[in-house]
Fold this sequence. Notes:
Blueprint (H helix, E strand, L loop, with lengths): L1 H4 E4 L2 E4 L8 E3 L39 E3 L11 E4 L2 E4 L8 E3 L21 E10 L6 E11 L10 E7 L6 E6 L5 E3 L11
Amino acid sequence: TLANDLNITGANVGIGTASPAARLHVETAAISSQPLLYVKNAFYNTTKPIVHFENTNSNNGQKPLVQIETAASTNDQPALAVLNGYVGIGTASPQTLLDVAGAVIPTIGITNTDTTVTDAQIGGTLRYFWSDSSTSSTGLGAEIRAVAAQTFSGNQRNTHLEFRTTSTTTTTTQARITHEGTLDLLNNDLSNVGAS
């Protein structure tokens, strides 16, 4: 019942706990197929977020605005943290827009879930965008692609790595590292290799 589930201690409200440790503390000890917190907005409004977090304290750089921990994480090494516009995975003090930290080979992965990969299929892409509003130079500038070098079969998943740049609105492959480890240049020009 509401009387048993809702507890107010001072300015703190507890749901599922008699000792709320925050302004809103939601807790359950039972395993459930339902989410612990469910937020739904049936009205689509492009000007407002569904959930809004804001810290107006001048010292808001001290602690993350949002921090998510799991049973395997700690306060200093959370699963996810947001601090001063930076996102940290495995760190509560991200130093870049995306900071991935870990004691055992921190890794960022891109997984293509297609189960029937064919020759020349793009497996994943890292894209670099510009936002120069003073000119028309806004948009995609360069990208790195993983491209299948064959139709995958058994343990064979030969993959090229392509480096693409643009001078207009679409990218063109300028260099490729093949699955055999060779470097292919589109213009065959090695005169500037190593130049600053």
